Amino acid sequence: MASQGLEKKHSIQDMIAQSRNKKGKKFIEKCMPIILVITALISVLTTIGIVMTLIFETFEFFQRVSITDYLFGTEWLPFSGSEPLYGVLPLILGTLKVSVIAACVAVPLGIAVAIYLSEYASDKTRRIIKPILEVLAGVPTIVYGFFALTFVTPILQELIPSLKIFNALSPGIVVGIMILPMIASLSEDAMSSVPNSIREGALALGATKLEVSLKVVLPAALSGIIASVVLAVSRAIGETMIVSLAGGATPTFDMNVTGSIQTMTAYIVQVSSGDAGYGTTIYYSIYAVGFTLFVFTLLMNLLAQFISKRFREEY
Amino acid sequence: MKYIDNTDVMKRMKSRLKMNKVWKSIFLIATGLALLTLVILLARIITQGAGYLNWDFFNNFGSRFPEKAGIKAALIGSVYLMLVIAPVSIILGVGTAIYLEEYAKKNKFTSFIQMNISNLAGVPSIVFGLLGLTIFVRMFLLGKSILAAGFTMSLLILPVIIVAAQEAIRAVPKEQREASYGMGATKWQTITRVVLPAAVPGILTGSILALSRAVGETAPLVVLGIPVILQFLPDGLLSQFTTLPLQIYDWAKRPQEEFQFVAAAGIIVLMIFLILMNSIAIMIRNKFQKRY
């Protein structure tokens, strides 16, 4: 018996040693981490690629157009043959007009939806409504653009007769509809993570559900809600198809929302769908505008991360 | 002695309870409004486009005449594009997720990669188009091909897939890995035979959702300069092609009213495509989801 057991033990050790010495296996064990690091580095390379592309081509642009003219110029007329003007402010203003209108639509509605879902709705209603909101978030932006141009604009024209076919109002509202699910679901997550004991404490003191929502849960979840709004506005700034279909192509430097505008993204689309020859100033200008757009959205994303980290209430 | 005067309490509470009711209905109306927009959007597009949906619409190429316009090239182009995006983005995404969850040590390098991924997710899609135009179309000389567009789109949805795969891998309990090590398995064996099979449903669901986003995406393709109207089908990965959203964009831009209906018909096809993909994702999630 004893010798048999010893023999078995011996053979297992042999097997382990044998398997350790298998060359293929060892090779895979050593190789895979390296391959996986390389795949992980692709995402870093993408960022580097984006930044480098934008910087190099923008640098080329600033060889031809002075940087102060670009940053502080109030006229954007790249297609006027003899003397093109590259002042980016009208494009930025166009973008901001759309984003502000979108925020005016999406922030109150989104937070109201979030409060309803997190504080008032039963589990069953929540399970039905949340997927529908996800569908709303999954609708391609081209569909929203079509909706803005062929449905929202004509309706608005009935209400405001002076409204042009291309304007800031209609795409603004539709971009608001597009970012609404994002604000609603991120804010709802933030509010749901406020512990129930706090709600119960307030209720026990005689607060109504509304008072619990607005005076207890909302302040506790505020960092998450603000972060969701900042993220959503950053989405609105980068939104392309809605504004290029319904916003028009006239960069203007005024506060009018009923006339045609142009956003940074819409300008890039306009140049790309026309045939701007490679190497022309107009070609490089889309990179300069893209870089400006990238800086805007990056700052907003970093702000959102900072807010949700710095001001998070821990329970 | 009466400590609580009910009528007095009710008098004080009345306005507060009323406010509660009023605001509850306001929140409810807001939610209803959000859902209503979806219904209006869908109803509007179906009533506009349904009349143009027929066999010819699927069998014709793009055309200057609305009654002859079809989506054959666009539909096939979108499928081709998916065939490039799916393997590239899933291999890169899952590889990155495995590295971050299973191999990476908690150090500055790892948190740098993680931060980079979350920032990449916030970059507007049109900027990815600029990246693709410079790197893939011009530098790698891929031209306006399926491959160039596929790579660009893969990078665009990569962050989404990485995050979904990370969550799926993280949800596999530690005990399972330890049991596998205890049986003498190596790290790579544990990953491929224990962790990944358990995480596949989550990874697939996230990947399909990300792919459906890529299918509906237009802006980067416009920047790459992908042509809109093609009279032929793509014959290889380096061939020119067009996609559904691009075709819809072109129709929606045209001034003739008939093209709006054609665009709506195109949107119906696109939405059916997306709904099919999403249903598959939901089915996978419901069928294979295990809770540990």
Automatic annotation (TrEMBL), chain A:
Domain ABC transmembrane type-1: 92-304
Keywords: Cell membrane, Membrane, Phosphate transport, Transmembrane, Transmembrane helix, Transport
Main location: membrane
Subcellular location: Cell membrane; Membrane
Regions crossing the membrane: 31-56, 85-115, 135-156, 168-186, 216-237, 282-304
Membrane protein topology class: Multi-pass membrane protein
InterPro entries in alphabetical order: MetI-like, MetI-like_sf, Phosphate_PstC
Pfam families membership: BPD_transp_1
Family the entry assigns: Belongs to the binding-protein-dependent transport system permease family. CysTW subfamily.
PANTHER family on file: PHOSPHATE TRANSPORT SYSTEM PERMEASE, PHOSPHATE TRANSPORT SYSTEM PERMEASE PROTEIN
Function noted in UniProt: Part of the binding-protein-dependent transport system for phosphate; probably responsible for the translocation of the substrate across the membrane.
Full protein name: Phosphate transport system permease protein
UniProtKB/TrEMBL annotation, chain B:
Intracellular or extracellular location(s): Cell membrane
Predominant location category: membrane
Membrane topology per record: Multi-pass membrane protein
Keywords attached to this entry: Cell membrane, Membrane, Transmembrane, Transmembrane helix, Transport
Transmembrane parts of this sequence: 73-100, 120-140, 146-169, 190-211, 261-284
Pfam families the record matches: BPD_transp_1
All copies of domain ABC transmembrane type-1, residue ranges: 75-280
PROSITE patterns the UniProt entry points to: ABC_TM1
Family of this protein: Belongs to the binding-protein-dependent transport system permease family. CysTW subfamily.
Stated name of the protein: Phosphate transport system permease protein PstA
Organism: Ureibacillus galli
